[in-house]
Amino acid sequence: MATKLPKTDVVIVGVGWAGGIIASELTKDGLKVVGLEKGKSRKTEDYFMVHDELRYGVRYDLMQDLSKETVTFRSNEKMRALPMRQYGSFLIGDGLGGAGVHWNGQTYRFLPYDFEIRSKTIERYGKNKIPSDMTIQDWGITYDKLEPYYDKFEKMAGISGDENPLGGKRSSPYPTPPMTKSPAMVKFVNAATKMKLHPYMMPSANLSETYTNPDGISRAGCQYCGYCERFGCEYGAKADPVVTVIPVAKKTGNFEIRTHSQVRRILRSGNKVTGVMYTDVTTGKEYEQPADIVVLTGYVFNNVRLLLMSGIGKPYNPSTGAGVIGKNYAYQVIKGASVGFFENEQFNNFAGAGSLGVNLDDYNGDNFDHSDLKFIHGGSISLSQTGQRPILNNPVPGGTPTWGPDFKKNSLKYANRALSVGGQGSSMSFRHHFLDLDPTYKDAFGDPLMRLTFDFEEQDRELAKFLAGKCGEILKEMGANHVDSLKELGPYDIVTYQSTHNTGGAIMGTSPDISAVNSYSQMWDAENLFVVGASSFPQNAGYNPTGTVGALAYRAAEGILKYRTKGGLVE
């Protein structure tokens, strides 16, 4: 029997970026908020002098323990799904701050096209451009409506950048200047400009200079140490929830964080939820936390899994297309596309920052004509310098033996003579890509695991080849003596790391027939339940998702406050 605790105004499930933002906004308005985090507590001091690639980069110290909870995967419905037993394709964060602690800090705004993709594609190319089994849809919100929330997130995080010449209109400049260009980036800019492309500095949550945000939080500038992704920032220069929004919420006195608290069910009565049931993983005791409002702010898989296990919303059925919970899972097509090797130049590749780079969007969204192409959308192309640490980075030209004296010779020669230009392709949703509960495998508590059904499509293969070709052209213009480019995109492989940009499953839209939540991330089927995160993306763009998650979290916080006052579905 679960112990029933005193009721609170709001309970938040998962205290990462979305949870931290919502806690900050609601507690400043006087609401009492309880944040339940299944992992441990964290603070900046935990990362002092721990530039430890083996611990964090190889052994995944900041990630979820897969022996206790994982996902199962299959390429299609005819296959039996098997558990992911070691990290590969994506990395699920764990503990206070979630994936917001180990992210790189690349903070893009999606393009206006991304939010109206179905209608804009049909308007320009006709209905036949969209394959019959592709289930892309408009978000139910436009870029212009979301822009003020992007602006708020960027000012809170102190994003360093310059304006994207092919992006949506901005209400104000980035709050801090762009990061320092390295010599490799100068080469990229010169080559891209010569090719009549439109390069710009990557928007970065790694501060370019000391900054104090509107909440009074001050942070130091980046040291370019090269330990961002998979690592916490010992300087506090990288914006993460632990050093930005969570302290603001705690300072109000209205926020209580309970770590080691695994939420296992959302409790419901009629058309409203009443709270959550969770287990204290240190004692095994179960608790019921009643609340007027419940907010799911966990990772994609965790949000969707909780909804399915709690029987909230209609589960998606790929055979009929009916239902919404689990619908439109999407990912990212490619990250690295081409590597150039330079015989007579060396670069300081060890130095860097998670979001130190140059980007261009000439082949992203619908910024180019797709009439004669076998795909829609596209991807951003960038040269980034995130820090080539020695264990996981060992570039050698194609044709080099994988062991022996020639391998060793080339490893040493090209350690600082190789540059990568990557394409980050969009991922369109398809009818047979979805999330559901695995009928066989369970977690440490006996609850079913999340099952992932996904594979790359012809759309993805065509897009990947296109972007790889463009990346190779840029490297050749930069003067690379040898370029290795992706030739074919094979089947999706959950073993090899690609990106932690999983999206969908509790998607946003204009009605309960086609979506789980409205534009304020409010559940159609339970008006006092809000589901916030990349789980609401109906498909994925050619960018990192965090900036959009942050914007949606600020909008959701506004929606929660409106609901608190008026009730009903927020408009």
UniProtKB/TrEMBL annotation:
**Domain Glucose-methanol-choline oxidoreductase N-terminal positions:** 220-330
Keywords annotated in UniProt: FAD, Flavoprotein, Oxidoreductase
- SUPFAM superfamilies given in the database record: FAD/NAD(P)-binding domain
Residue span, Glucose-methanol-choline oxidoreductase C-terminal domain: 439-553
Q: Which Gene3D superfamilies match?
A: FAD/NAD(P)-binding domain
Q: Kindly indicate where the leader peptide sits in this chain.
A: none
> Keyword Oxidoreductase, does the record have it?
yes
Q: Which family does it belong to?
A: Belongs to the GMC oxidoreductase family.
- UniProt protein name: GMC family oxidoreductase
